[in-house]
Amino acid sequence: MPKLVYVSLLVTAACAAPPALAQNDDFASVEITVHEVAENLYYLEGRGGNIGVLTGEDGIVLIDDQFAPLTEKIIAAVESVSDRDILYLINTHVHPDHTGGNENFGNLGVPILAHDNVRLRLSRGIRGGPPSPAAALPVITYSESTTLFFNGEEIRIVKVPNAHTDGDSVIHFVNADVIHTGDVYRTTGYPRIDADNGGTAAGTIEALDAIIEMAGADTTILPGHGVLATRDDVQEFRDMVAQVYERVKPMVEQGMSLEQVTAAAPTEDLDARWGDPAGFLPGLYQAIRNELDAR
C-alpha cells in the first residue's frame, strides 16, 4: 500500500477516536511550515512542538511528531525536502503534542527512541488517558544518554535532569552545531513544569545549565516551542527561571497556598518580557512542594 494512502487511513482512524484525543481542535486547518536550520537540517512548525528533521543519503531522522491527525501533513512536509525514508523517530518527552503521532509512525515501521520514563508513562497513560497502544511506544530506550551516527552527523541524545518532565532529552546535532531542546526551553514565554509527570523546578535550572554548557557562542538553539534562538537567549531564560524560583520557594516554605503565591505576583516585574505566568506558577509551586516533601 502506498505510504501516504496508508497514513491517510491511520489519520482517519485517529480522527474518529474519542474527543479527548483530538482535544476539540480543527486539525484540518493546520498548516505545516518547513524552516531550514542548517544544511540537511530543518524544523516543522504546525500545532504542537517543533519537529526536527535531519535529512541525508542514509534516510531521515525525526524529532517528535505533534498530533496524530497531522501525520499525513507532516510526512508531506518531510517529502518536500527529501525523498528518503523516515528511519528513526526520537521523542524529547512524553507530552501528546510531541508524541501524538507515535502510533501512526510506529505502524509504518519507524523505530521510536526515547528515555525509559517516556515509554513507562506512555504505557501507563498520562493525564488520565488510557495506556498508549504498543505501536506508539518507544522500541529503543536509554536510561542516561546515547548517540546515533547518521547521515555523517553525530546525534547526541542527552538525558538532562528532570525538568519539564522526568523523561526530557536534548538532541545535539554536533556537526551542524544545533541543539533541539524539547520543552526544557521555549521562546514563547515562561516555562512549563509538569510536576505530575516528574518535572522539577531545580532540575529545570540544571537542565538549562546543561544546554548552556553544551552550546557554543554560535550554536543554533531549536526550542520545543517558538523560534530559533542562541545560547545567550537560553541564558536569559535560565536566569529568569532561577530568579522566580528564589522568590517563590520561601513562600512555599512558609506554607503559603498556590492562591496566596499567585496573589503575591512574584513575576509582576517580568511579565512584560515573558507574558502570562498562569501556565508557569502552578507547576512551579507544585514542584517546589514536591522538593520540600522529599526532604
Taken as a percent bin, the fraction of beta residues is: 15-25%
Q: What is the CATH homologous superfamily assignment? A: Ribonuclease Z/Hydroxyacylglutathione hydrolase-like
Evaluate the radius of gyration.
19 Å
Q: Quick one: CATH class?
A: Alpha Beta
Q: What is the number of independent domains?
A: 1
Question: What general form does the structure show?
Answer: globular
What value does the average pLDDT take? Answer: 93
The major pleated sheet works out as: 7 strands, mixed
Low-confidence spans: 1-24
User: Which series of helices and strands comes N to C?
Assistant: HHEEEEHEHHEHEEEEEHEHHHH
Distance between the termini: 56 Å
Share in helix: 25-40%
Number of helices: 11
Strand tally: 12
Architecture overview:
By secondary structure, the protein is of the alpha/beta class. The protein has a single domain (3-293), classed as Ribonuclease Z/Hydroxyacylglutathione hydrolase-like (Metallo-beta-lactamase, Chain A, 4-Layer Sandwich). It is 36% helix and 19% strand. The protein has helices at residues 3-15, 19-22, 71-79, 96-99, 102-107, 116-124, 201-214, 231-253, 258-263, 271-274, 281-293; strands spanning 33-38, 41-45, 51-54, 60-63, 86-90, 112-115, 140-142, 145-150, 153-159, 169-173, 178-180, 220-222. Strands 1-2-3-4-5-6-7 form a seven-stranded mixed sheet. Strands 8-9-10-11-12 form a five-stranded mixed sheet, with no helix packed on it. Helix 1 (3-15) packs antiparallel against helix 3 (71-79). The longest helix is centred in the last third of the chain and has 23 residues, at 231-253. The model is unreliable at 1-24 (pLDDT under 50).
